[in-house]
Amino acid sequence: MSGFDIAEAARLHALAFEPAERWGEDAIRLMLEMPGAFGVLRDGSGFILCRVAADEAEILTLAVAPDARRKGVGGALLAEAMAGAVVRGAGAMFLEVSERNEAARALYAAARFSTVGRRRRYYADGADAVVMRRGLET
Ligand SMILES: CC(C)(COP(=O)(O)OP(=O)(O)OC[C@H]1O[C@@H](n2cnc3c(N)ncnc32)[C@H](O)[C@@H]1OP(=O)(O)O)[C@@H](O)C(=O)NCCC(=O)NCCS
């Protein structure tokens, strides 16, 4: 995809996630090459990757650098991803988040995502994944 700085995204991902969860440039490139995938990047602060398949969108990752947090960047990236998903024909957006990730769960709840499922012991640390969904009608 043109205009998306993969090296900057990998740098931000490394700042935002623990070493075991980091995605390098190759992983990010592979994600963006999937059909329906797109990304939104804010240089120096954060990015989001999303994929639309049929009429459903999925968030693949969302990363905000620690020194850029609690300034609305995550919410703005999420809003841009939702708008991009609507343009690509999605009627709903899904994501998975660790039950232990209080910041992300609060962000998604504030953005009107609801819990629709749970994947037991989904993450390497034994945490469950919470599956969340939001309709994209308005
Ligand atoms: C989760 C993350 C993306 C949030 O990004 P952010 O830019 O700080 O989020 P915003 O500033 O847009 O926050 C929007 C709202 O989310 C909630 N929120 C965000 N971080 C929070 C925290 N640490 N504790 C409680 N609520 C939080 C608040 O309601 C906040 O609104 P407010 O600041 O007016 O109270 C960021 O913390 C991050 O990159 N974490 C590490 C990677 C990660 O967990 N990604 C998501 C994986 S599913």
Features:
138 residues; alpha+beta; Aminopeptidase; 6-stranded mixed beta sheet; 4 helices; 32% helix; binds coenzyme A
Descriptive notes:
With 138 residues, this protein is an alpha+beta fold. It has one domain: Gcn5-related N-acetyltransferase (GNAT) (Aminopeptidase), CATH 3.40.630. 32% of the residues lie in helices and 31% in strands. The protein is built from 4 helices and 6 strands. The protein has a 6-stranded mixed sheet, sandwiched between helices. Strand 2 and strand 3 (56-64) form a beta hairpin. The site of coenzyme A has 20 residues, from strand 3, helix 3 and helix 4.
In short:
The chain is an alpha+beta fold and 138 residues long.
Q: What class, by secondary structure content?
A: alpha+beta
Mean pLDDT across the residues is 96
CATH C-level label? Alpha Beta
End-to-end Cα distance: 27 Å
| Binned strand content | 25-35%
The neighbouring-strand order within the major sheet is: 1-2-3-4-6-5
Give the SSE string.
HHEEEHEHEE
- What is the percent of helical residues? 25-40%
| Unreliable stretches | none
CATH fold naming: Aminopeptidase
Helix count, per DSSP? 4
* SS elements, strand count: 6
Bound molecules: coenzyme A
CATH superfamily: Gcn5-related N-acetyltransferase (GNAT)
Number of domains: 1
Shape: globular
